Amino acid sequence: MPRPKLEDARDRLLAAGLSLFAQRGMERVNSNTIAKRAKVGIGTFYNHFPDKYALLRELELRTLAGVRAARVAALEGAGPDPAAQVRGSIEAAVGFAAAHPEAYRVTFGRERAGAGHHGPVVTESARPLANALRRLQSRGRVDPRLDPELGARAYLAMEVGMLLWWLEDRKRAEPGQLVETLVRLHPAGRAAA
Amino acid sequence: MPRPKLEDARDRLLAAGLSLFAQRGMERVNSNTIAKRAKVGIGTFYNHFPDKYALLRELELRTLAGVRAARVAALEGAGPDPAAQVRGSIEAAVGFAAAHPEAYRVTFGRERAGAGHHGPVVTESARPLANALRRLQSRGRVDPRLDPELGARAYLAMEVGMLLWWLEDRKRAEPGQLVETLVRLHPAGRAAA
Amino acid sequence: MPRPKLEDARDRLLAAGLSLFAQRGMERVNSNTIAKRAKVGIGTFYNHFPDKYALLRELELRTLAGVRAARVAALEGAGPDPAAQVRGSIEAAVGFAAAHPEAYRVTFGRERAGAGHHGPVVTESARPLANALRRLQSRGRVDPRLDPELGARAYLAMEVGMLLWWLEDRKRAEPGQLVETLVRLHPAGRAAA
Amino acid sequence: MPRPKLEDARDRLLAAGLSLFAQRGMERVNSNTIAKRAKVGIGTFYNHFPDKYALLRELELRTLAGVRAARVAALEGAGPDPAAQVRGSIEAAVGFAAAHPEAYRVTFGRERAGAGHHGPVVTESARPLANALRRLQSRGRVDPRLDPELGARAYLAMEVGMLLWWLEDRKRAEPGQLVETLVRLHPAGRAAA
DNA sequence: AATGAATGAGATTTCATTCAT
DNA sequence: TATGAATGAAATCTCATTCAT
Hints:
The structure is a homotetramer. By secondary structure, chain A is mainly alpha-helical. Chain A has helices at 6-24, 31-37, 42-48, 52-78, 82-99, 101-108, 118-138, 148-168, 175-185, 187-190.
């Protein structure tokens, strides 16, 4: 029998934190509320996390790993065609947001206090995309005048912004429409036109 | 202490709030600090604003009006060519962000508590852009398969996201590069390619 | 022409204070609100009253004078019969409360902060009643074993308590019923039985 | 500081609140002072009561229960004679006020902000007394022209008013005198005359 | 006399964190 | 490890009063 209570408390705290952060936003959630929602004593909270930001950080790391894994899997499944890779990567991101809306909103949303947070979170995805753009430019498949760093940033800002907007109210669009729009506006999608 | 000149206090509070919000983010600024920075009693703060969110809202309204005015002026000065209009509008936005970085970050940044705030702020710009895209589609200048609403949203998310990223550290790019990138990735820029 | 503005402000302040105190109770009314209701600057408030308690005190003095005058007039109109005098005095008190419910509630109600306030307000009425009871005892018209001081106090507590209770919701009884009840329970009403 | 024994804090807060409310009156006591007097952190105050009114309400409930219990016990001990019952009930009330002067003053005194509070507190005692009067009327022991509801109210206003006045300065009378006065002026005492 | 913006002491309330059990 | 009562620094907000105009 696996330890029944042990990791239980930690997982319940993470789940409670996730749903509360998504619902109310970082600064409007307090550690006591998280513990209560997790049906755990407040002392237990501090046995597992040094403070509430640590819990948030862990949620973010899990989300980032999840998005990355989804993209990697999509790229591996897409074969060598760049267009298919772009579409696959986008479908992966949209799919992840649809499957884990709270995690997506908490990680990428506008909730964090303090400036300069968005950047780092996105940076990790920007680098591989910039490299991909450079490769495509060298093969003449993307406008060579586009700065690949800036293009990557710009695209990711767009993707994140759209998905957050969509998650506010999913009736705003079908996932397929989102994918179409993002594909069409993707820097690597342009050359096709 | 003698009472300062009439509307002085209110303006000083707005200025103090702006710089503090930009520096530390909404939730890490308190009314006492704003009042102190404005060299005004805490009571004066509450004579002018019911709470710190009201001050923020006023700053946002001023910023939105500023961006809109800059865009309108640019469009009027750009003549009838759609490409020139797109570029002009983008230059106006970049110019505004460069001239009022704190106001831009406070208004569009990721600081507000509670979800669903970004949307409304951006919505007002999304509508005219969607209309422009529709017009260009009917004239065959923009890919007709692009959903104009989603395209407008996507572009604005990109523009805002890039400018916020840039304002975190302006050494990251020259304003001209930003304009080039945004022009190239603009939904209406595509058909020109 | 009498000074038009002069006493105007003071009277409007008193009226505003009366209605606000009656509505919300002493401690939940502030001087700025009174001034606003009186359509007068807050500065004007302090030109007329040293503080908000002074305004209250003036209202109370006016009310006490009003009740006393009503009772005196009733006694004078009642002729020499003690029973008629008792009934007349009670009718005067009930009539005053009915005519000036706010003033009555503010003056006699349970609103004042700090203990020991009720006593003084009532004391002034207790003395003449105690004297009357003594006179009636010496004439054998009131039970001689009743302590006239305590009897007077007790009756007045009853009268005030009933009228406040009635003013909370006047549908609770007809004024005539109140008078009957108070007459029957009056220390001097007893001998009649 | 080591945490004091379990429910200790709550009881100390109630005791501190009682003595402070009695001393200064509701509106002149603040939560900090109560906590300090109870030798407890301010946070502990808010762990136990949502605000100071909640503490007051609990004190009132305890007092009302105490008075009721004292009256019930007295009635049970008084036997079937109505006169003895009346006297017993009055002795119980006077005894309770003498034994718990602070609780009595806080519960029945004129301190509460907002109107309409006294009524409800007294209502609960008014009903049984009204019923008793009705019974006595049907047996011809009380003047049938007296409205039993109003009579009950009137008597209770008298009792409460006298006891509050007495508690302001106990030298004003002996408890025995109070009882005598109240017995003589009781609606059910009258028929004896 | 009238005005009302400005003031700041003080009251209320929140919440991250500790620690004895 | 788990618990949760206790804590107090810090934030929000009120309001009586002043004073330059």
